[in-house]
Amino acid sequence: MAEEPRSPALDGLEEIHISYRYDLLLPPCALRFAPTLRVASFARCRFPEGISPTLAFPRLTRLALTEVEISEDALHGLLSACSALRVLQLDWCGGFDRVVIDSPTLQSFGIVADSYVGELVIHYAPRLERLIAFDNFDIQGISGGNLAMPLHSVKIFILDTVGPDLDAVLNFIKYFPCLEKLVITANQPRV
Q1: What mean pLDDT is predicted for residues 59-84?
Q2: Is residue 5 part of a domain?
Q3: Residue 121 covered by a domain
């Protein structure tokens, strides 16, 4: 995608999936479809620094980032530009230490963090029903101190990690008083 696709047929594009074999810079033309996109996934690429504050994804409901390098400021700028976002998946992404969830529309959030993310802050997510954390995600990093209030909307919490501290998990899930399904998979540490 070296040149910007200019075909009028793409003006109403609702879904885009961009995946590279190698870590390449996401071309600016990929973001030109922001106003009409409903679904977007980006894999093995780097987001440009300083995503424009005027960039908006008013119709985007599903966003998946896989092995994407994006700065913390760019990530939060991107998320704040998604006013209709319902599903967010972050898999093995880097470039940021914290993920702050502040979304009135988000219903499902999944993160495969490995060792890249130190902290998940759920500031405001009244519709969040599914929280899925895989790999070496540190349950301490999503402790109750990072929740502004109990999340009554969360029904499903899935944690797949290396040897979680069950006391920390039990302390954490008290912030989900309406939890219907709890799945914990503890794996052996990698040697």
Answers
A1: 93
A2: no
A3: yes
129 φ, ψ (degrees, to nearest 5): -110, -30
What one-character DSSP code corresponds to residue 73?
H
- The 10s digit of each residue's pLDDT in 127-155 is 999 988 776 555 544 444 455 567 788 88
Query: From its phi and psi, is residue 112 left (phi > 0), alpha (psi between -120 and 50) or beta?
Result: beta
DSSP, res 10: G
**CATH classification at residue 132:** 3.80.10
Tell me which H or E stretch contains 80: helix 72-80
Contacts for 44-52: CB closer than 8 Å, 24+ residues apart: 44/19, 44/20, 44/68, 45/18, 45/19, 45/20, 45/69, 46/70, 46/95, 47/71, 47/74, 47/75, 47/78, 48/74, 49/73, 49/74, 50/74, 51/77, 51/78, 51/81
Domain count for the chain = 1
